[in-house]
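User: quick one, fold this
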Amino acid sequence: MAARQQGQIKKWQEDKGFGFIETEAREQVFFHVSEFKAQRRPNIGEEVVFSVEYDNQGRMQAKQVQELGFVKQQMAQKNKQIRQRNHKRSIQADFEAGQKKRLFVGVGFYLVLILLAIMDKLSWLIVGWYIALGLVTYLMYAKDKAAAQSSEWRTPESTLHLLSVLGGWVGAMVAQTYLRHKSQKVDFRMTYYLTVLINLAGLLVLLTNKELLPF
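Assistant:
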């Protein structure tokens, strides 16, 4: 494909349907109206973009002559689309990285609980409680998202927060990350983080005061 050049229409003969473009190198290039791609007639002095080919006699001819303004507009639109596509890819990459981190945190927390139970520092019932409540909380988030999409009865946010406080915060974290539910609402997220801190503080109290354990 011939390289595109920029120039200015210097001569135009309306009755004959051809003219000449002056290139940036001050060369005169012939062009025919059939190669002018705008839905109108050319104007003397307007800036254009074109490619150059040679006829059988070795003379330069301008092909695919387009308005410079139109080409710039097309390029700006294309660049905008590229930026938007790259931005979406960046957001997706960040999201996927966040998914892995949050999943690692959740799995790591459960592994710590299991290790504590193996060391006889925590009851297996509590480990089971955290795992079961995590699953229940995840399912409640999934149910609430489905209800939001179908305009049905929603699960109160207070219920979701209560589940997190009681130990289902890992399930809530996974649901927010993988279901993308309640992940953009700042107030909800702040309250969620508070429920995590409250739950971990309660767990720490239980670990340091085993007499408080009901079993």
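User: anything notable?
Assistant: The helical segments are 68-118, 124-149, 157-178, 186-208.
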